[in-house]
């Protein structure tokens, strides 16, 4: 038995790095059955995949090339999202740093979506680092004035350009000897930055659509890449809609660092900071200690902003968003997505196929 880290996952086949060796593995069927039994008992939310990139696992292998995942070790954290009509997805696990990449221009910088990434990282216990790419396309002072708010809250911000080389060395220092992930919308230049940080990766890059002014997906799957200067980095697919994964609405205010000191001062312990009297957060907002746009982001995520709320439609358990004004989907209901009996049969069929595949690889 050896411990390793999952560096790539595709069609339920996992590449596991054990020291300097790469071993192609499949899950032991008993792990899937045990997971199903546990989730039935605890009513814990189901995920699209049981194993994700970054997971630490115990494997067995007889030939050093193929093997079985015998145990999935507990995660320190996970970065993922909910998806309308699909099971929630964990994109990467056990990250030291989440590098949240947005472009200064082309596509436009969307601060509300940035707030959602920050809340996701806060809830997961990951260290968020904001990276603003394509600084060569804009007047730097304008972008930096926008980001002063986030720097004042305590978030580190790196200004970068793969064209001029600005910020590249700072990114290397931040990522050194860490497990990190580049996350952000499509078209912001995540893969281009990584190619500049470590020449030789030769990651595919794409352009922004002239018709929609949105990025086009070039990274289609997640893989942990080994860095010459130490550590690993995951280049994740672009995200156009970040549904908040495992962000309990009752704890949402604590994921806004500027609100934390005021939470114990509210009259009501369960204050939503939307309409209650004697709310310390609203008092701080009125005196300028909390930024109005950040407060509006909080209300939108909570569903308390006019025109933005989740409602159940007749005949389905899936939450629907009434108004998607800023292009961001919100859904936190992860039950009732699919027929469990059909799902279980599909998983059993897939397990049989992978056992046959593993035998053929020996």
Write the layout of secondary structure elements.
Layout lengths: L1 E9 L2 E6 L2 E7 L1 H14 L13 E5 L5 E7 L5 E6 L2 E8 L3 E7 L7 H14 L2 E7 L6 H14 L3 E3 L8 H8 L2 E6 L6 H8 L26 E3 L4 E5 L44 H7 L5 H11 L7 E3 L6 E3 L18 H22 L1
Parallel strand pairs: 3-5, 8-9, 8-11, 9-10, 11-13
Antiparallel strand pairs: 1-2, 1-4, 2-3, 4-5, 6-7, 12-13, 14-15
Helical amount: 25-40%
What is the element string, with H for helices and E for strands?
A: EEEHEEEEEHEHEHEHEEHHEEH
Look up the CATH topology of the largest domain.
Rossmann fold
Radius of gyration: 22 Å
Describe this protein's structure.
The protein has 362 residues and is α/β, with parallel strands linked by helices. The chain folds into three domains: 2-73 and 339-361, OB fold (Dihydrolipoamide Acetyltransferase, E2P); 86-235, Rossmann fold; 249-321, Orthogonal Bundle (Ribonucleotide Reductase Protein R1, domain 1), CATH 1.10.40.50. It is 27% helix and 23% strand. The protein is built from eight helices and 15 strands. The strands form four sheets. Strands 10-9-8-11-13-12 form a six-stranded mixed beta sheet, with helices on both faces. It has a five-stranded mixed barrel with strand order 1-2-3-5-4. It is flat. Mean pLDDT is 80; it is low at 206-219 and 306-341.
Protein traits:
flat; alpha/beta; 15 strands; Ribonucleotide Reductase Protein R1, domain 1; Rossmann fold; 362 residues; five-stranded mixed barrel; single chain; OB fold (Dihydrolipoamide Acetyltransferase, E2P); six-stranded mixed sheet
In brief:
The protein is α/β, with parallel strands linked by helices and about 350 residues long. The chain has helices spanning about 30-40, 110-125, 140-155, 170-175, 190-195, 280-285, 290-300, 340-360, and strands spanning about 1-10, 15-20, 20-25, 55-60, 65-70, 80-85, 85-95, 95-105, 125-135, 155-160, 180-185, 225, 230-235, 310, 320.
